Amino acid sequence: MNARRNPLAKLEAFMQRIVESPFNWLFPSKLEPIEIARKLERAMDDNTMLQGEGRKLAPNVYDIYLSIKDHQQISPNMTSLSRDWQNQLVEFARRRHYTLKTVPILRLHTDTSLRPGALRIEAEQASTGGDGGMMSTMALSPDQLAQIRAQLPSNQPLPGIDAGSSPAHSSGRSGATHGARSGVNHGGAAAPVTPPPAPQAPPMPQAWLTIRLPQAGQQTYRIEKPLVNLGRQLSNDIIVEDKRVSRYHAQIKYQADGQFTIFDLGSTNGITINNTPHMRQHTLRNGDQFTIGSYDFYFERR
Description:
Elements: E1 4-5, H1 7-26, H2 33-46, E2 49-50, E3 56-57, E4 61-66, H3 68-74, H4 78-96, E5 105-110, E6 119-124, H5 142-150, H6 162-182, E7 207-212, E8 218-222, E9 227-231, E10 238-239, E11 250-254, E12 260-264, E13 271-273, E14 276-279, E15 281-284, E16 289-292, E17 295-301
Helix pairs in contact: 2-4
């Protein structure tokens, strides 16, 4: 029997959004973790898959989209909140007699189209390999990968992740052996070769982007991690909703020299930086302006 979604649950969720959306628009309020927990449960309900013998398979990946302001308030506590939400979802699935293939995976994103107090959750069932390992792991954080590995039998690799990294580890060991053989001291003993340490980037300074949105005022995004992705795809840190923008358009990277650099990721239209169009790379200075699609960004740092 082919799996299929519960159409009645989807209709109920649609009607609830129609009722809630105007109220949230007129009376925005601070987003509380308990509200996100309730929406996660609803997303699980709405996206269960009917399987053979009346079993219902619950989704195990949940993408949580928040406004930039709410994202900045929630993300510092995401580790503890994620653990609580996971436990609640597991208990919710147990009460509803749903099947969960793995501990729920929660991923937090920003969406510039959302007002403070509003959120959107997309839930899906990540595909699994025949040995129970997760296949769709490209967008998972190290913590989330660790959660998945903890559920697998001892020493069982994750397909596409552990197996793909084995050659690197293998070549690293063979390189060390080769170095030991070639580096022989006068006593005839092998001298281990220690690779030089990689340069460490200095601590990140305070930096932020002021984003001017088309017909929606402006928002501020604090740069709190070394890589910030911009584009039309929903998995980006900053979502630029414009048809002229590529799915993965640009990336801001904090470099080892203490500078922030913006890179074009092979987009069709490039980036306009300080009124110069089609730029592919630029070291950002305090006060720089760049444009992606119809969104204007102002970079500031201390």
